[in-house]
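Fold these two proteins, one after the other.
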Amino acid sequence: MQTIGLVDSHCHLDMIKNTTPQELITTAMAQGVEYFLCVSVDLKSFPNMFNMIETMASVFASVGVHPNYTCDNEPTVETLVNLAQHQKVIAIGETGLDYYRSQGDLTWQHQRFQTHIHAAQQANKPLIIHSREAREDTLRILQVENAQSVGGIMHCFVEDLATAEKVMNMGFYISFSGIVTFKQATALQQVARQIPLDRLLVETDAPFLTPMPHRGKTNQPAYVKHVAEFIAKLRGISLAELTQITTENFFRLFPHALSTK
């Protein structure tokens, strides 16, 4: 496949203030970033987010409810599947578990995670997984619910190589955010050196997790170039090679995304 530029495999264009999605895309493209996956965090904001990016040929969307978000009505399999019917919606999520921000009886969070997996299976679209301080339960639910039938992305990966290998065996790709560029992230940098290149993705999670050298500023998709440059240096390859690899990986996971362009 002829590739053009980098993919920001996880961003929230509708959450970046004091600018517009079109301005963000224009700035990113000037830095060699060509494609964008705008990730849903709740169903209340999803219509506005989707309307914002629907006419942008290089921007794709997901639909789902973040594990920390409260909502009046829990998402159902039927609701998620219906919203995922649009061809620009290429993934279900972000979904998963977060024990850092949520405490107490988290049965509801497990149930929400399971609902998203079942919706992904019915819609036949990959998952975007958020997991924070919940490694064992995340792995268990993915296994029990047969998430390998759809695969997906382990977004903002911060775990060890053993965990990466377990999720890769279930058909998931490993996506690194700006965290990998932080000076104290030496263990994560070692993982980034060892992930098979054909399972590697890069992301910003903008407006969060701004990479070096812009840490402290609002993150934006243009900055995924810094993540890619950092990992390319770790791997001893060129930015052009890493761009080619990660963009091909993205479209291997989301082949139907090509038909939306």
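Now the second one:
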Amino acid sequence: MHKVVEAMQIEGPQAQSIQTEFEVMTSLLSLSGARVLELGCGAADKTRQIAEHSDVATIVASEVDQVQHQKNLQIADLPKVTFKSFGAEAIDELDASFDIVMMFKSLHHVPVSLLDTALSEIHRVLKPGGVAYISEPVFAGEFNEVIRLFHDESVVRREAFAAVERAVVNGVLELVEERFFRSMLKLESFAQFEQGILNVTHTEHNVTPDLLKQVCEKFESNRSDAGYVFEIPNRVDLLRK
């Protein structure tokens, strides 16, 4: 029998607290001695934060972008971390082998047709009682308005949310809590935005000179005395096997 779920929301309340992802994550998870799998680790910023500022046992951090993965393999100062390359839809790990699975803004990068498979795979590798921490950006806010000029993620973010909701409704994973918060992103210049967002290796944006000008103008419209400061709305779904 399918479970009736009424609490899940894609955007959440308008009034949300301002917190860092690490603050939210550590308030929801028991990391002590945990064996952790991070899917879509990117440049391993969160990986490093968790490894250096918690007492996890081990972290397997996976990234499908081969350019970034090769860079991650050069990291030599994180003894708790093992870097691997596979996607959430085909996790190359044993059944029931992790206490926690984490995805930071990466579920919507999974091909839409494979989202259900990815959530089933997360269920498979979690130990009984283990939890999945899935953090996704809410499709709103000024930073999102800049991004959508060259990379509109409205459809894939809705599909990612719908897949999580299906996993809960169908009993693949149990919803423990849904948390909404705003994080702060501060950039010093458009050049920093280009390097960190436009020129990522995992997505080819194909930005024309005219479009680049539009993006730059939209970005510059957010200039303040403090630089370029954006409030990013986020949703976290904490799920349990």
